[in-house]
Write a structure and sequence with these properties.
The radius of gyration is 15 Å and the shape is globular. It is α/β, with parallel strands linked by helices. Strand 1, helix 1 and strand 2 form a beta-alpha-beta unit. The protein has one domain: Rossmann fold. The longest helix is centred in the first third of the chain and has 16 residues. It is 34% helix and 19% strand. The chain is built from 7 helices and 11 strands.
């Protein structure tokens, strides 16, 4: 399984790291040896909303060859909603079977057309902004619509990561990863 973690200027680093940590443990804990990932960006240098610099593995290349893309949120999403080249780059993920977002990353998935007819969630402060892009905004930490999974604000990315670990490798793998992360909280879909 090949994953693209999308990053961009003024993202919230915790949105990225919160899901990256449990998913990357699929490989490092030898749960899924075939799990691999790239950190992908539209630019060669990315700075988050607090000044942390992150260097991508892949710059501007199509996202179409992945099995999963993950899009974080942050204040940078508001600018990117009106950035045609960025949205076109994100649309290159059309053939990707599973798309996920944390926080206001859902706005970007929506702008790319990936939330049409689906339920979705985002940070509680952006529910109104999300409404035009999806069938219904849901006030849950994680909303799994099959081909698209969205998570609420910031720390919900950890829950999304653990949810995907379970989806890919089962409940025992989720429990193992959560235990290794010393993460005692148990979010379950309703």
């Amino acid at each position: 399984m090949k994953t693209a973690f999308v990053i961009f200027d003024r993202m919230t680093a915790m949105d990225f790291i919160g899901i990256y940590d449990p998913l990357s443990r699929l490989k490092t804990m030898k749960i899924m040896a075939e799990f691999e990932w790239n950190v992908c960006a539209p630019t060669p240098d990315v700075t988050d909303d607090r000044g942390l610099r992150i260097l991508p593995d892949s710059v501007g290349k199509s996202l179409g060859g992945y099995d999963l893309i993950v899009v974080p949120g942050g204040m940078g999403t508001r600018t990117l909603l009106r950035d045609g080249p960025f949205i076109d780059w994100l649309k290159s993920a059309e053939p990707v079977q599973l798309k996920a977002s944390v926080c206001t990353g859902a706005l970007l998935l929506g702008a790319a057309g990936f939330l049409k007819g689906k339920r979705a969630t985002t940070h509680h402060g952006a529910y109104e902004e999300l409404k035009p892009y999806c069938a219904r905004v849901v006030t849950e930490r994680v909303v799994d619509e099959g081909s698209v999974v969205t998570a609420g604000g910031v720390t919900a990315g950890i829950d999304l990561g653990l949810h995907l670990v379970e989806r890919f490798a089962g409940a025992d793998a989720r429990a193992r990863v959560a235990r290794q992360m010393d993460y005692p909280y148990t979010w379950q879909p309703r």
